[in-house]
Amino acid sequence: MLLSFFGDDARYYSDIRSEISDTTPDWRRLNEQINEIDSLRAKWQLIQNFFMKRFTHDFGYTFNYVSHAIKYMHHQKGIVEIDEVAKQVCTSPRNLLDIFKHYIGMSPKKFADAMRFNTFVNSFQQESRSLLEAASVHGYYDLSHLHKDFLRYMAVSPADFFTMAKVSKSNLHGNWEEADYLS
Q1: Which domains does the chain have, with CATH numbers?
Q2: 181/29 Cα distance (integer angstroms)
Q3: 18-61 residue pLDDT tens
Q4: For the whole model, what pTM was predicted?
Q5: Helix or strand or coil: residue 133?
Q6: Each residue of 123-156: pLDDT tens digit?
Q7: Which of 69, 114, 71, 116 lies closest to 96 in space, CA to CA?
Q8: What number of other Cβ atoms are within 10 A of residue 150's Cβ?
Q9: How far is CA 31 from CA 3, 27, 92, 94, 168, in A?
């Protein structure tokens, strides 16, 4: 995907940190628009629209493996074994790893983990389960596992995130400590 944005192998961008506004005027404009919006949902919509406009690039036949793998991971909500993903797309796990790193900039396992986390966050807001039950359904072993992913992907604790996202306390059954017992 990064290949279509910058024209370089995605691995180049996976191990460096840079300001998004330092890359191109389009990215700078996106960053400014994000900063002007108060709603978390509106920010995500803006980011999704920005990326969807850039997914029209012709990647070539090897991207088909990645595209099918992503569709399979999405169908499985990120709860997948990479060997099974490779079988589904008719390639070896090593080849899948190489082409994933080339096009996406990360391993299929990291991508699936991020997809699982994203699925959890999006669905938890509509579920009436406790945090522990929802975490278990989405492939987390325990709340510690979920808490680590919140810190990794959002840089905030679950309770802080749900407060910012205005998720009702009823989904946590009034027990914020359940979300942050590691904090």
Answers
A1: 2-53 (no CATH), 63-110 (1.10.10.60), 127-180 (no CATH)
A2: 39
A3: 665 566 777 788 888 888 988 888 888 888 888 777 665 556 66
A4: 0.62
A5: helix
A6: 887 877 888 898 999 999 999 999 999 999 888 8
A7: 69
A8: 22
A9: 20, 6, 38, 36, 29
